[in-house]
Write a structure and sequence with these properties.
The chain has helices at residues 8-14, 29-34, 39-48, 70-86, and strands at residues 18-19, 22-23, 26-28, 52-57, 64-68. By secondary structure, it is of the alpha+beta class. The protein has a single domain (8-86), classed as Arc Repressor Mutant, subunit A (Orthogonal Bundle), CATH 1.10.10. It has a three-stranded antiparallel sheet. The longest helix is centred in the C-terminal third of the chain and has 17 residues, at 70-86.
C-alpha cells in the first residue's frame, strides 16, 4: 500500500468503509454518495489502484457493492488507527 497515492476525492470515498469502531470490508455506491463523492469514476479509479474490487450490482438504489482487497484493508486499518488516535 505504501506508494499508492489517493486524490482527496478518493480518500473521501474510502471513508465509506469507516465505521465507529474500525472499518467494514464492503460498502456500496450509495454509501460513497453519502460521503459526498460521486462513485463513478472514483471507485473504478480506486479499483485500478488495487484497493477495492466490484463485488456485485445491487441495482439503481445502491449501485455496486465494493469489497476491500488486502491492500485496501491495510489502507483502512491505518486510517482507522489514525482516526482513533485523533479522538
Amino acid at each position: 500500500m505504501s506508494g499508492t497515492r489517493l486524490t482527496t476525492q478518493q480518500k473521501r470515498a474510502m471513508h465509506a468503509f469507516l465505521r465507529r469502531d474500525g472499518f467494514d470490508t464492503e460498502t456500496t455506491d450509495a454509501a460513497v454518495w453519502d460521503c459526498g463523492v460521486r462513485p463513478w469514476p472514483t471507485m473504478e479509479n480506486i479499483a485500478k489502484k488495487g484497493l477495492v474490487v466490484a463485488e456485485c450490482w445491487y441495482g439503481s438504489e445502491d449501485g455496486w457493492s465494493w469489497r476491500l482487497t488486502d491492500a485496501g484493508r491495510e489502507y483502512m486499518a491505518a486510517l482507522a488507527m489514525a482516526r482513533s488516535a485523533a479522538r
